[in-house]
Amino acid sequence: MIQASSPANKAFFTSGKIISIDLSNTKSAPSYDIVIGDNIISEAGSLISVRLGKRRCIIITDTNVAPLYLPRLEAVLGASGHQLLPSLTVTAGESSKNFDTLQLVLNHMLTSGVDRKTLVIAFGGGVVGDLAGVAASLVLRGVDIVQIPTTLLAQVDSSVGGKTGIDTIHGKNTVGSFYQPRLVIADVALLDSLPQRELRAGYAEIVKYGLIKDRAFFGWCQTHGQQLLNGDRSGQIYAVGVSCDHKAKIVAADERESGERALLNLGHTFGHALEASLHYNNSLLHGEAVAIGLVMAFRLSAQMGLCPESDVEKVRDHLRATGLPIVPPPGPLTVDQLMDFMAHDKKAEGGQLTLILTHGIGQSFISHNVNTDSVLSLWKEFLALRSAT
């Protein structure tokens, strides 16, 4: 599914990869491209024009991205003949993924004069992508959106596949929609401004793809992961490309998560429970929560006799070596609260836990009606490990 740029595109796209998500078998929006490269933000206007024409555009970004890159993106779009409506900058961070900020975004769009041919551009990390995605799906009953993710986490996960959402008191992403973008532009040069902690958080999602169904890619991560985190752009392009290719294939086969797409949630049910219990504060980033969840999913699988303990150790050792957490952080965490959030997870069915478990690295599967006593014991084990690390 990874494709070289076609001759028609070479006039404006000079490096990287183009991955196409084929949604021809769904009732969704038309198929779209994920364009991955180095410093391709300078080509954003042309990349959009060739695929979507000259458009009226409204950019949604955040307080981290705007000072660094917003004037440049606005200039690039304007130079390519796109008409710009006033951009909106929201407060950076997970705490902005709520109804209040969503209303702010919708009001800004309507006040600025969006119409049904206006193109929304989500320019930021996963929070901005989710907020703008929900807003684009709602305003005027739906307008086109382009995702330009600026974090590694968003480039390999949240910007691709059309899942949008906001957080509520009931959990993470419990309100939202499936709403596919018309284009994704992933520029690894934008990752240079990220703190190492943010890069590591995104890297956890990259490792996840190897653990789901590509043992060889996990081996690549073991060998090259640290170089990627140290800023190797060729490695970043490769890893983002492989990750997006895996996700593209799964989304094309199961857009609405009625089956195989649930595999993408490996580690996430545990991670989401941790995030919600800590009120989405900065003590635990999403990717860090996923890293802990990956170890927990492998540990539970081993305890159930499904997975060799040696694979648990490989996952744990690699994540720890790259600086990611492998046990929950200090904080007011209780087993009862964590179990309650898991019971209300979107993947729970009829009050029964549905988890992604594994037969080993690259061999994940969907497991329904997981024994809650086993999960409760696992939480007790991992909370106790906090004092031992």
Describe this structure in words.
The protein is an alpha/beta fold and 389 residues long. The chain folds into 2 domains: 2-193, Rossmann fold (3-Layer(aba) Sandwich), CATH 3.40.50.1970; 196-388, Dehydroquinate synthase-like - alpha domain (Dehydroquinate synthase-like, alpha domain), CATH 1.20.1090. It contains 13 helices and 13 strands. The strands form 3 sheets. Strands 1, 2, 3, 4, 5, 6, 7, 8 and 11 form a 9-stranded mixed beta sheet that branches. The protein has a two-stranded antiparallel sheet with strand order 9-10. A two-stranded antiparallel sheet has the order 12-13. A hairpin with a 5-residue loop joins β12 (353-358) and β13. The longest helix has 21 residues, at 233-253. It starts with a strand and ends with a helix.
Fourth-level CATH superfamily of the largest domain: Dehydroquinate synthase-like - alpha domain
CATH topology (fold) name of the largest domain: Dehydroquinate synthase-like, alpha domain
The CATH class of the largest domain:
Mainly Alpha
- Mean pLDDT across all residues, rounded? 91
Work out the count of structural domains.
Answer: 2
